Amino acid sequence: MYKIYIVEDDDKIKNELGIFLSKNGYEIEKIGTFNNVLENIINSNSDLVLLDINLPRYDGYYICKELRKVSDIPIIIVTSRNSEIDELMSMNIGADDFITKPYSVQILLARIEAIFKRVNKINNNSIINFNGIKFDLSKSIIEFEKETIELSKNETKILHYLLKNKGVIVSREEIMVYLWDSEMFVDDNTLTVNINRLRKKLSDIGKKDIIETKRGQGYIII
Amino acid sequence: MKLIDYLKDRIIEILMYLLLMTFVIVVLKIFDVNIFLIVYIPIFITIAAIIVLFHDYFRKSYFYNELISNLEILDKKFLIQEMIKKPDFLDGKILYEIIHESNKSMLENVNSYRYTQEEFREYIEMWVHEIKTPISSSKLIVENNKNDVTSNIDEELDKIDNYIEQVLYYSRSDNVEKDYTIKEIILEQVVNNVILKNKKDFIYKNILLDIKDLNINVNSDSKWLEYIINQIVTNSIKYSKQENAMVRIYATKNKENVQLFIEDNGIGIDKKDLSRVWNKSFTGENGRKKYNSTGMGLYLCKKLIEKLGHSIDIDSKLDKGTIIKITFPIGSFNKI
Predict the structure, then answer these.
(1) What stretch of H or E contains B296?
(2) pLDDT tens track for B145-159
(3) Is the bond leading into A74 cis (omega within 30 degrees of zero)?
(4) What's the farthest any 2 CA atoms get from each other in chain B?
(5) Which positions in chain A touch B196 (Cβ < 8 Å)?
(6) B203–A180 C-beta distance less than 8 A
(7) What is the pLDDT of residues B247-292, one digit of tens each?
């Protein structure tokens, strides 16, 4: 499990962000006081830092710069300043990404995932086992009783999303929003095609009817 | 300054002089002075008087005529003070001092307004950043407590955020200082950000999105451009029809420029309104009918686009759709 360190002076944002990220499978540590930000971050042994710019004492830019001198921990700068200059500055002092408030949390999640993917080529959570099927996310492969088949990028995303919500009905719109967040702007027809192909591939390896259709509601994997 | 006007202005002195001359001639006559003196004394004195009069006329007319012609060619009349040479006659000197003083006081006055305006602008910038914190935390709270009610609130929060962005860019659009950064950016990235911002509208209103040929570099400020394109795309969504709505975004690279097209098949704009859509507070037929419109969106787009050195055009057919074209010139002019 990856650990994320949140540096943010607004208590509400800090707590809600903590709740949201823990819900999505991350371990969280939040900053308490701003006396020794640098030390606290380093001692926390985190895998990623979410860093606000407007902070008491030293601002986020300073902390980012100092942190870079001693550690190459991924840093995402989160700020309400949204000018080109702020973004350039963040990148110049060694931040890995820059996101402006108010952000869509889905996009924040996507950015975090992208960084982890980039940093660690071998992903521990990349294999999901469900209903006897082995689903390798990093290789986009499903496997059942020696039968393997490769999935397209969209099919992988769709299957992953259905599995994230295993046992819950997922609407077509929800799946589309999820795909769009990864900048894959599929329309209604494409989604139908993708789902049909995914189903066909599942039945090809001998697992028919894994994805159930709920009329007028969406899809579900039980 | 015309000679005749000058003489009219001096009429009392001239009359007094003539009176005095007549008096002198009469007195000389009474004392029966030599006829030679009676003729030549008045002639010499008159010549002297005319020289004095003309000397005065020429130096004044030289000063004032130059002043007037300078004033005429000046675009900003208040700069006249910079163009006056200090005159060598008394009333000119007084005038010079007065202009000098009044100019100084006007400058102070203008500066105090400029300062107040700049302070206000800084305050707005700060306020906008401050207000983003509670909006962010509200959106996080919504995310952590998802249901129909909070999703509803979330939509309203997005609207608030849009209005706040408008304030920010409005204050930036009027700023004399340059607070944008031109660098090479990929159109696709900017457009994708805009699409992501509006993804729910596209998906839930079932608007077909067609984007292609956007892997082209242009020189611009990505944040400003994102704001501008977002305005246009939200308009396309707002004025879309119920059935078969479509938004198409594509770009072409030409010899002298790159052109970005944003096309929709929405309700379109009436011909008589088309030329005025860039005007401030203009809402037109569409704005009046049923959509809440402030008439600020396109006005700001145009202003910001021009500041960045691009240009924007619109074409539309009522009931058929609208197409907006942004042109980015290529060349040394737009490079940093």
Answers:
(1) none
(2) 988 899 899 989 988
(3) no
(4) 124
(5) 104, 107, 180-181, 183
(6) yes
(7) 999 999 998 999 999 999 999 999 989 989 999 988 887 877 766 7
Q: How many Å apart are CA A183 and CA A202, to the nearest integer?
A: 25
d(CA B177, CA B185): 22
* CA angle centred on A19, ends A18 and A22, rounded to 5°: 80
| Helix extents (H) in chain B | 3-9, 11-30, 35-73, 90-144, 148-173, 187-197, 199-204, 222-238, 271-274, 284-289, 297-308
pLDDT classification of A57: cutoffs 50, 70, 90: confident
For residues B61-90, give the mean pLDDT. Answer: 88
Q: Does residue B49 sit in helix, strand or coil?
A: helix
> Quick check: A94 pLDDT over 70?
yes
Q: For all residues of chain B together, what is the average pLDDT?
A: 90
Q: What is the crossing angle of helices B11-30 and B35-73, to 10°?
A: 170
Q: How far apart are CA A11 and CA A9, in angstroms?
A: 6
Q: Nearest CA to B215 among B187, B191, B193, B196?
A: B187
**When comparing pLDDT for A194 and A183, which is higher?**
A194
pLDDT for residue B334 is more than 60: no
- DSSP, collapsed to helix, strand or coil, labels residue A46 as coil
Question: Alpha carbon of A65 to those of A50, A53, A69, A174, A194: distances in Å?
Answer: 14, 12, 7, 39, 45
* Cβ-based neighbours of B204, under 8 Å, separated by 6 or more: A173
B230 — contact with chain A (CB < 8 Å)? no
The 10s digit of each residue's pLDDT in B114-141 is 999 889 988 998 899 889 999 999 999 9
The minimum CA-CA distance between B132 and chain A, rounded to whole Å, is: 6
C-alpha atoms less than 13 angstroms from C-alpha of B270 in its C-beta half-sphere? 9
Residue type, A182: S
Among the partner-chain residues B139, B144, B196, the one whose CB lies closest to the CB of A102 is B139
Domains and CATH numbers, chain A: 3-119 (3.40.50.2300), 126-221 (1.10.10.10)
CA separation for the pair B186, B167 (Å, rounded): 26
**Residue B333's pLDDT is what?**
52
pLDDT at residue A43 tops 80 = yes
Summarize the confidence of residues A42-60 as an average pLDDT: 90
- Which chain B residues have a beta carbon less than 8 Å from that of A105? 139-140, 143
Interface of B with A in 84-113 (CB under 8 A): none
